[in-house]
Design a protein that fits this description.
This protein is of the alpha/beta class and about 325 residues long. It contains nine helices and 17 strands. α8 links the parallel β15 and β16. α3 packs parallel to α4.
């Protein structure tokens, strides 16, 4: 392997009937030894990601991989090497996982996992496990009642991560609308982020804040604690670098395709989107001309989910 090439590793997200994920403890003598990780290992020359993952899980756990799908791809640079984690969600397997290499195994609730007990490259996976594949962005409505009606429709069909974005609304009206929307979201376990000043969003009871690209580039550190979701809009390498530096939970990367609302605006296209998504080191939602059925293609390109207004709201 050339020094400039990342170590290509396949990793598995496996869930039991209770939603817990399978973890394996790295042997003490290995790189990042003693930390917990997701099962998997190095992809050998000539193997696809799925072939390498299937071999690793057979050797480590004694199971045969059935149906799986892309989940997340992360590039992470340690001082001594760069790792590319190609994560697959294993939906079906045959056999009961066994510690064939005498490693410690455990099933754990994703909500209870401490990032400090995992290699840094695995931390974006922990974040992604707590996120749904869709990120719904509100459209511009004439009044709050229309917004709440549309919000109810989104929640009824199962959307669980939403951004309240209403440009031009007064602070008083936005505060009132946020409180009403948060109450409706909490009844079904959904989370609402507000595109506004972070301190205002927290004061209004929102579950998080969404930073515009302009706001992102003006701040120097993460604007809230770890109990408060922080997302950001990004369009290029500089914005993604700032998002990673301040430690946002996820970003929206756009525009993937052209949209009627921004005619003539330069688009990323699939090739540039993949290049940026793989280097981001965090969950990426694709925005701009995407629909829910684009999810598989977005994940194959290194993204995590799909976001939008017209096709979602």
């Amino acid at each position: 392997m050339k020094p400039s090439e990342p170590l290509h590793v396949a990793a598995a997200v496996m869930r039991d009937s209770a939603g817990c994920v399978l973890l394996s403890r790295r042997p003490d003598h290995l790189h990042q030894g003693g930390l917990w990780e997701f099962p998997g290992g190095k992809i050998e020359p000539g193997e696809t990601v799925v072939q390498g993952l299937a071999r690793e899980l057979r050797e480590e756990l004694g199971i045969r991989v059935g149906r799986c799908r892309p989940f997340l791809c992360v590039d992470h640079a340690y001082p001594e090497l760069t790792v590319r984690l190609d994560v697959r969600e294993v939906l079906e397997w045959t056999g009961e996982p066994q510690p064939l290499e005498r490693q410690q195994l455990r099933w754990a609730d994703p909500e209870t996992l401490d990032p400090a007990t995992f290699p840094a490259a695995d931390v974006p996976i922990l974040t992604a496990l707590r996120l749904p594949p869709h990120y719904v962005i509100s459209g511009v409505q004439g009044d709050g009642e229309d917004f709440l009606h549309r919000l109810d429709g989104c929640l009824e069909r199962g959307e669980r991560l939403l951004q309240l974005r209403v440009p031009g609304m007064s602070e008083e009206a936005l505060a009132r609308l946020t409180r009403d929307a948060v109450g409706r979201c909490e009844r079904v376990g959904a989370r609402l982020l507000v595109n506004a000043d972070p301190e205002m969003a927290r004061r209004w009871g929102a579950h998080g804040v969404h930073l515009s690209a302009n706001r992102l580039m003006r701040i120097e550190c993460r604007p809230a604690g770890t109990d408060f979701l922080v997302a950001a809009s990004c369009h290029d390498t500089a914005e993604l670098a700032r998002a990673k530096t301040i430690g946002v939970d996820f970003v929206v990367l756009s525009p993937l395709r052209s949209t009627p609302s921004h005619p003539g605006r330069p688009v990323l296209g699939w090739s540039r989107f993949e290049e940026l998504a793989l280097s981001a080191g965090m969950p990426i939602y694709a925005l701009g001309g995407v629909k829910p059925d684009d999810l598989e293609a977005v994940r194959a390109a290194g993204g995590f989910g799909v976001a939008g207004i017209s096709a979602f709201w």
